[in-house]
Amino acid sequence: MPETPEAPHSAAPGDVDFVGVDDGSPANKCPAVLVVPGTGDILQVGRRVTDPGTLAQLSRHTSIADDEVAIWTPANLKQILLEALTGAYEPGQTGPGEPAFEDLLAATERSVVHLEARDTYDATDPAFVKWQTDGDTTYTWDGWIDLVGGVVARGVRFRRLRIVSEPVSDYIRWEHAISYGNLKAGEELRWLPRHLAYDLPHPVADFFMYDQRLIAYNFTAGDGTDTGRMEYVADPRKILPIVGMFEMLWERAIPHADYTPS
Q: pTM of the full predicted structure?
């Protein structure tokens, strides 16, 4: 293929103008179009084309070098691309950035599922430390109840599944004791002992899934503390298997009211 000017590997802060994003994407994650001021170069964020059939059709018209990818762009981005090409956009705009949990919930219309598969999370949580000392199950749930309760009140189904080892860890025993807050918020909560799930596949990271359209994976350190790292998946081909996996796990899990930690 013809040689093209070498693309910059990075741009300094403030050197990229946000033009627009696909309003139909979950929580406006992507696709997105940006422009490098001065050069007019266009940057796109979107779904990489991996379907063999589509790639075979593309290969009839052009080759894809080792450092290139084919990006799928929805038709409703035509106007935004035109603005980027002609410079008819407002310079200095900023994109939506990393979506907050509250924003993701606000954009959800039908369902939220949450998988937790660790036996310990933040063992330094003051409420957990206190419970270890005196068995106090007091926990500040008000914010969660208001947030999730409002989502459930408008018809969104919220399910939480906890996969646990038995005998359970002290942390899981504490979580079970304070789960009254999850229930009060309107969550459906089930527990799945690990020995009952050994033959069922599931992701290696905890996740939230919104409307079966977007999965937000979160990662913890070895000691269970949150690393703050998130990975988002909106590719239907990668979401569909997770939908099936979760449903199989959910069917085998035990409702909170019927589960007593061993």
A: 0.72
